[in-house]
Structure formats: structure tokens, C-alpha cells
Amino acid sequence: MKSIPFKLILIVLALSLVYACTNRRDGSTQSEDPQATSHPKGQASVEDDVSAKNILQVAMSSEAHSTLVAAVAAAQIEHVLVNAGPLTVFAPINEAFDALPEGTVENLLKPENKAQLATILTRHAAPGSFDIDALKREATKGRKIYMATGDYLEVVIEGDKIFVGGAEILSTIPTSNGVIQVVNKVILP
Amino acid sequence: MKTSIRIHSLLMAGLAFLAMSCDQGNRAGNGALSSNIAEKVYIAPGERDEQYGFLSGGYSGNLTVYGLPSGRMFKEIPVFSQFPTSGYGYSEETKPMLNTSFGFVPWDDLHHPDISQTKGELDGRWIFANGNNTPRIARISLTTFETEEIIEVPNSAGNHSSSFITENTEYVVAGTRFSVPVPQRDMPISEYKSNFKGALTFIAVDPEHGHFNIKFQLIMPGFNYDLSHPGRDKSHGWFFFSTYNTEEANTLLEVNASQNDKDFIAAINWKKIEAYVNNGGGKKVPARYAHNVYDESTHTATSTIKEEVLTVDPSDVPGAIYFLPTPKSPHGCDVDPSGQYIIGSGKLSADITVHSFDKMLAAIDAKKFDGEAYGIPILNYDDILAGTVQSGGLGPLHTEFDGRGNAYTTFFISSEVVKWKLGTWEVIDRQPTFYSVGHLMIPGGNSRKPHGKYLVAMNKITKDRYLPTGPEMEHSAQIYDISGEKMQLLYDFPTHGEPHYAAGCDAELIVNNSKKIYRLDENKHPYAITSPAQAKVERKGNEVHIYMSTIRSHFTPDNIEGIKVGDKVYFHITNHEQDFDVPHGFSIIGQGTSEILIMPGQTKTSLWEPKRVGVWPFYCTDFCSALHQEMQGYVRVSPANANIELSWSLDE
Amino acid sequence: MKKASILMIIGSAMLLSLFVFPMWNIRLGAPQYPEPLGIDIYINGLRGESEFDIQNIDGLNHYIGMKTLPKPEEMWEFSVFPLVILAMSIMGILIGFLSIAGKLSSNWFLLWFVLMSILGILGMYDFNQWLVAYGTDLDPNAIMKLLNPDGTPMKYNPPLMGHKKLLNFDAYSYPRLGGVLMGIGMIFTLTAYFIGRSKVIKTR
Fold it and tell me: How far apart are CA B537 and CA B570, in angstroms?
């Protein structure tokens, strides 16, 4: 007789333990990873309306570069364009992307082609600040520009026009972290 | 009855099992819990951190001491900068520490701390650091956490590929970033090419006291020597320096020094050069440089100006130096714990280049060279390449190791740390940093035996990570747990100055050796007094020396008369406490220097030049005791022509 | 009888350990002293448990007007106690040898024990007197003069044995190795007496 209450206590204990156990497991599924909520885009999501605009901010405000901006977002390389740099970005206008073979852009924007797209885009970025005078100096001294992918692009002057890697410079926009050289072509290897 | 026992034991066993499995399930489930991350960095009140981190202070000129994983700052150790907090560089005893051949230079840019090693493992005796601007190397004691020695490096400029040590602390090595005319002279800047030289300096470290002595300077071609690391284990005896500007440009380097597709890592067989020097090789040339040594028993530093240095021309020691072609202006130059891999991070490149030490030796044996530069053989890139890491990041800078076959490289432009495997070169993990990471540090990560539990990323840009503090923000560091396959970001913490590199180690290496007090009976300071009865004031012309003591809560003496305007008054204060963490401070109105903080058993001197007649108070600046506010005194200052006799007293 | 005599010799010889090990210890701990300050009391003087403990205790005590801890030459006890202990030890050992030789009976063991106990009690009494004097004879110009709730001046004497709270300090007073060995030695001598007596009864 004496052993029954003891047995009961054990059973109750066991049940409560099971309950506590399952309960705690439920709890863990509800919590979130703090890293996931902390600045997914890195420096690109810093809010700052006062500083001079950086390359990404300028590009985003330019209607002529909506395709480029979409591509940068798809390749998830925004943070490169807001980096301290200095960088020179040869920014193809929307028409330049349109001129690519049918379906090329759509294909590159697919998530599985992210790496390829990133490579193509970083081929348009050069470490260093190259304004028009600097580009002219490179051309006259016969020096090539080293791009972030490791490729070298040639600078050529033809009359009033300057070409980098075969793309013509249409205009120049200074930014807080470098220079945007607007070009009429996507620079492919 | 028997059945009931059986049921009992079954139930009990089941309960125990349940409790155990519940606990395990819980632990596994917590992996993703944010509270679990918090627990990893949470050090409860009274508990202590697992590891020390010594972060360089960059332009603060000092070294800061942190606890890991909490990120709490414990101390700022003054090294190359005057530090009013303790009186370093202001007190008469420590002024000589900042003496140079250019005179008193009260600031420098401290870059790369490195902890002393024995057999390639951290031994926790000293930490070394370089002053970048007016080239200097410092040795800091890890028992007193005080700077004990500073040596100036002649023929050097922008002392950047420094202060890395060989695996038994035989040498601390200092390489020049800027090549300069050697010896310095008046000449046109445009004649840089082939006229400027880059000095790589090997400073011998006395194994017992740690004292410095420049063993030799290697006078290399006029490139920029950016960073360096020693060979270790199998490559012990070699030293590797990354270079840029092999173009030898003297203007607009951002363009002109980025022309060559490949620059070099210079591989230097220092044992061979050491043997050459020991056999009488090398040339002694005139040079002026300061050597400052702090003596713990006199609590006083002395500065000596040296007039000569031994230089070695690379062409005189054939077979000791080779160039390893490395793409795109390599910055970081890191050697893995086995000594087999030399990692060059081309800062403008997307890939990381890894050279093989074995392949390098084989190529040297086979004499397979791809030309030479200034008589130094250049090896063939493909012959020595172990592999490249196709990182997918941009702007690789520095690499550290965890001792488990993994390497971790920072990428400045793409703001991330990438973990990759040595040997297979595959990328295992990548984590963002916030933002634009420069150096990283794994405690012991540049030794044979890393203490690889945490990784500290030191970022160059802070922006919005903390509450804003005006235009200038302190740099931010992030700590990652690297004990698992994936890195886990644990914590952000602000740092002081600009940390370029850091060193760290397990706490146990240092904790038990850390000094608590200086023994008063070992104090050999010429102005020390070991008993308040010895307190006195002496006049020598217009110099007045006050021998003063402190103990809770008074100065002896605390009333002094007979001082005159125009006197130079030296307060030599001995702290008679022999109790851990009971310093006393001293300051006096109109003091043209800073206060001084005197540790138990120590003597320090503050110079005061009274300019006005009056009775001027002095007081203890460190809240020492319940009667700290009573710890004060007066000095009577009379006109220069007054006839007041010197007198001093306490409670008379 | 021989066994008892040997026990008597060992027991009284154990007093000599007081020349090597401390007899008593007083320890003061406080939040700002995670490693407590300690005084080891030897028969010939006081020593700090760590090298600078005495100096630091004196430093703290000057705030409440306590005298500095006595140097050996400042207390007659530190010169007399060693002589008493030495004399008692020699006497006990002599008694032991003489009883082996059959010159003395085991009653002498008891006599020695009683004498030693009286001396011990006197010593403890003297020690307590000193503690009280030390803790209550305070400098009238002391920096801090603290009163008990009933208005009487606060006393700071540590306990003779055990724990006592003194302001923010926890004071602990316990025997150390020398004192413990002396106690065991004395028990040995008493045991020697009982063994010796039962032998005598048996032989009768």
C-alpha cells in the first residue's frame, strides 16, 4: 500500500517533465535569429539624408539606370557601391541593356545566375577615382584601367569622345564615394 | 513486493532518461535562440572573460586591452603617446620614453601588436607594437602592462610591415612602407627610381630581459613594404614581406602604383643573413636613432642616442632573398600555422593567392627563375602557387587561422569575412561585417597554435551601428564565434582610436603573472623615500626637490614653504601603499604637465614651475580612500627675492 | 606502560611544532578585499598571511584609531611564550623517558596535562585581554568615531574564536596548524595517562 503514492508522484513528475520539455521546444521555434534582422544589405541600408549621395543613391535616383539598379539588387552587391571606395562605376544606361540579345537580362536576373550577374556588374567598377581628366591621362599615357574583376580595360580618345572598353562615356556624375561615368554599352569580355 | 520495486526502478530510470534527453533537446534547440547568443558574450558580474584582446589604437598611439568575448575594455596602455591619465610622457621618469633623433615626439600611429612566442606558441611575456610615423618599435610588459622599451628605426619611413616576431622571439622585424634616400640627403623627388631604398630591420630581442638591439638592416629596392609575417614551424628561419609600388612611382600612387599586374612578396632567409652578419658580414654606417629603456627598479626611463647601424646589401648574400610574384598590390601577407602556406591578398583583386613554401624551396633548388629585380631572383608565379581562393568577395586584406585547417580572410570592399579551407581552397562560409572590415584577429591566430574560439573583425566604418556621437564615431569591432562550421556573429563593440590589427591569447597565459604592486623595498629610484621620516625638501640653485610620500590619506609633508617664483619644483612622490589597486595621484594648481598616478611602491616625479606668489594647494587625484578628499596640502610661493627659509611639515 | 610513555613523549614533543607553524589566525575579508587580509599568530610574533597584510591592516585601522599591531618586542608574551612552551615540552619528554625507566608513574602524565591546561587557559585569557584592549583602546582623536545604537563607542575586537562582523569586514578567528598540533599533543598525553592507569590496574 505504501508504495502507491510514491509511484503516483513519479508518474506525475514524468508527465510534467514531458510537458515542460515539449513546451520549451515550442518556444524555440518562435524565436528568431538576430542576424537575420540586422541590416540584410549591410552598409547600403544606412539611413543618411544629409551626406553627399553615394554611387548607389545617385544611380537609384536616375531613371536612365533603372535596369542597372535592378541588376545590382538582384546580384546583391549594393554594399560594394556604398563602400568608402573610391570607385569608378561605368554605368550603362537602360538602352545599353536593351541592346543585349533578347532574353539576356531576364536570364541574368534569375536567382541562380546571381554570381554571373555579379561578375558582369563588377566588371564595370574600377578601384580608384577616374574623372574625365584622369581618363584622358590614362589614354595619353597608354595605361589600362584595372577593374574589380581583375580585367583591364583600354581607354581610347577619338575626337571629342572617350571610350572605355569599347563603351562611350556619355556623361560624368561625381558622387561622395567616387565617380559614375555613364556609358552607352554593357562592357562584356 | 518485488514487482513494486521493479516498477519503481523502471519509472526512475525512465524519469532520468527523460530528464537527460529533455536537457539535450533543449540545448540543441537553443542553437538558434537569440538568448543563446547573448549567453555566449554575457559575463555575469564578478565573472571574468576567457581571453585577452590587445587592440592597436592606431592614431591614439596607444594599445587597448579588452576581454573576450564580452568586448569590455579593461585598460588603455600608453605606448607612443603622452597619456595624462597616468602621466606617461609627462612625468620626469617617462619623458625619455618618447625621445627620438627628432627630439621629443609625443605621438605616433600604433599599428600591429604581436605577443611574444616560444617555439611558435604564445608565451604571454611581452607584446610588441610599431609606431608607424616616426619609425619606432615598442615592447610592453605583460606583467606590469607598461611600455618598457622603445627603439627608433633609422633609414625607415612609415614603419608599417612591423612589428612581427619570429617564432622564438629571436627578432622583432620592422619594414619600411615608404622607401627613402638611404642615407637621407637633399635630392630631387623625381629621382626616386633606383635611388630610394627600403630598409627591413631585424631587431634582436634579449631572451631574458627582452632588450632590443638592431642586429642588421637589409637595404632593399625602393618598393613599398606593406605587411609581413614570419615563417613558422617548417618555414621558421624565413620572413615574408608583401610589397606594392614595385613600379617605384613617387606621385599619384593610387594610379601609378597599380600598373604592374603583379607585385612581390619578398621571401627572406634571415637565418642565412644572420650567419653572414655573425661572420663579420655587413657594413656599419652612420645613423642616428634613440633607444629608450624603462627600468622597473628605478621606475625611470633613460634615452640613449645611437650613432651607427649595421646594413646588409642583398647582393652580398646571394641565395638569401627571393621575390614571389603576387597579383595586384598585395596587402596582407600571412603564414598558416604549419608554415607551408604564404597567403597574399591583392587588395585590388577578387582572389586570394596562396604560395607553397615547399614549391618555393623546390623552385629555388632548381634555379627556375623568371628574371630578377635589382639582382634579386624572381620566382615563377606558376611554379610556387599552391592555389587561389575564388572568394567571390572584393578587396581581400588580411587572413588569420583557427588551427583546425581553416583560414579567415577579410574583404574591405565587400564588407565580409570569408572562411575557407587550406589545401582545397573552397569557401566554407561568409559573414557580413558592419562595415568595411580591415584587420581581423583570432587569439593566437598568427602562431603555430591558435586559440581559435573567437574572431574579432575590426571595421573601418561605423555609421549607424551605435548612438550617434557627432561626425566622429569610434571604430566598431565585431566578435564571431568560430567554434562551429559556420561563423556566428555574437556582438558589436566600439573600440578606441583606430585598431589596425590586434593580438590575443587565453587569459590563463597572463592572469597569474600580472603584477599587483611594486615592492617598496626594491624601489631604487634616486629620489625615493622608504619611510615618511625621510621626507625632505632640498634646494639646488633654483631647483627644488621635494621628497614626498603618500599613504592613505595624507601626503608627507603637506605644508611646504620657502618656494620662490621662478623655481623649478620637482615633486618626487613615493607611494608607500603595498596594497593591490591603491594608487595615489598628484596634481597642483597651474601644473604645466599632467597629473601623475603613482602605483603602490612606485616613485614618480612631476615638475612644477610656479609663476605667481601665493599659497597653492595640491591634492590626490585618485579616489584612494574614504578620506580621499582630505588628502591635500599647500605650497607657499614667495617672491623671487624673498628670504623665506625652506621648511616642510606634517601635523606640527 | 612503554606504549603510554611513548605517547607521552610524542604528545609533549608536538608542542615544538608551535615554533614552526602559526598557533592562531585572524582573517579580515571585505568586498574590496576578495583575497582577505590575514594575521598569523606565532608564539613569538605576528606575521601577515600575505607579505603586506600587517601593513594594510594597520593602514585600515588607523582610521578608527586602533594601535598598530604589536611587534615582538612590544609584547612580553612573545618572549615568554616560547620559553614556557619549550620548558613544558622538555618536561613532558623527560617525564616520558623517566616513566620508561620506571622512575615515574603515569600520574605524572596527568599532572603535566593539568599544568599545561592551566597555562593554556591563562594564555587564552591573556590573548582575549589583548584582543579586547586592542579593539577598544582607541585613539580619542581617531578619524572615525562610531557608536553602537545604544550610544556606547563601537568595539572592534575580533572574536576569540569564530566569526564576527566588524563594520564592513567579516572577521574570522580560528586555530592554525601549530595550535591544532598542540591540541592533539595534549590529547595524546591525556590518553597516555589513561592507558598507563589501566595497565597499572590490570597488573594489580
Answer: 10
C30 touches chain B (CB under 8 A): no
The last residue of a domain, from among B470, B491, B511 = B511
Of the pLDDT bands very low, low, confident and very high (cuts 50, 70, 90), residue A18 is: very low
- Sort out which chain B residues have CB atoms less than 8 A from A8's CB and list them: none
Q: What is the mean pLDDT of chain B?
A: 93
Phi and psi (nearest 5°) for B129?
A: -150, 155
Question: Which of B422-431, C51-60, C151-160 is least confident?
Answer: C151-160
For the domain spanning A51-183, the CATH number is 2.30.180.10
Report the percentage of chain B scoring pLDDT > 70.
95
Termini Cα distance of chain B: 91
B517, B578, B627 ranked by CB distance to C143: nearest: B627
One domain for residues B381 and B486 = yes
- Whether B2 is in a domain gets the answer no
Q: Note whether B396 contacts A: Cβ–Cβ < 8 A.
A: no
Distance (Å, whole) CA B112 – CA B121: 18
Least confident range of B19-23, B106-110, B342-346, C3-7: B19-23
Same domain, B596 and B574: yes
Query: Are B348 and A11 an interchain contact pair (Cβ–Cβ within 8 Å)?
Result: no
Dist CA C105 CA C200 (whole Å)? 9
Question: What CATH number did the domain enclosing B555 receive?
Answer: 2.60.40.420
Cell of B434: 558592419
CA distance C187 to chain B (A): 41
Q: Which residues of C touch B517 (CB under 8 A)?
A: 52
- For residues B439 and B112, what is the distance between their CA atoms, to the nearest angstrom? 10
Cα B216 to Cα B173, B232, B308: the distances in Å are 10, 21, 11
Instruction: Please determine, for the modelled complex, whether the ipTM score is greater than 0.85.
Output: no
Chains C and B touch (3+ CB pairs under 8 A): yes
What is the SS3 string spanning B101-147? CCEECCCCCECCCEEEEECCEEEEEEEEEEECCCCEEEEEECCCCCE
Residues B417 and B460 in one domain: yes
Please check whether residue B626 lies inside any domain of the structure: yes
Size of interface B-C (CB pairs under 8 A): 16
Is B10 within a domain? no
Burial group, residue B190, by CB count within 10 angstroms (0-12, 13-18, 19+)? exposed
User: Residues B338, B460: one domain?
Assistant: yes
The verdict on B533 and B475 lying in the same domain is no
CB B411 within 8 A of CB A19: no
| Residue A21: strand, helix, or coil | helix
CA distance B429 to B426: 9
Asked if C59 reaches chain B (Cβ–Cβ under 8 Å), the answer is yes
Q: Which domain holds residue B639?
A: 520-649
Domain boundaries defined on chain C: 2-203
C17 CA to chain B: closest CA distance, Å? 31
Name chain A's partners: 3 or more CB pairs within 8 A.
Answer: B
The verdict on a CB contact (< 8 Å) between C56 and B579 is yes
- CATH code at B143? 2.130.10.10
Instruction: Kindly report the three-state secondary structure assignment for every residue of B577-602.
Output: CCCCCCCEEEEECCCCCCCEEECCCC
Do B343 and B388 touch, CB atoms closer than 8 A? Answer: no
CA dihedral sign, ordered C38, C41, C44, C49: negative
- If asked whether residues B530 and B500 sit together in one domain, one would say no
**Average pLDDT in the A154-168 region?**
92
Residues B241 and B114 in one domain: yes
Q: Scanning every residue of chain B, which has its alpha carbon at the shortest distance from the alpha carbon of A31? A: B33
Counting the structural domains of chain B, the total is 2
Which of these three, B511, B538, B560, is where a domain ends?
B511
Q: Do the domain assignments include residue B38?
A: no
- The pLDDT of residue B47 is 93
Q: What is the mean pLDDT of chain A?
A: 79
Q: Are residues B266 and B136 in the same domain?
A: yes
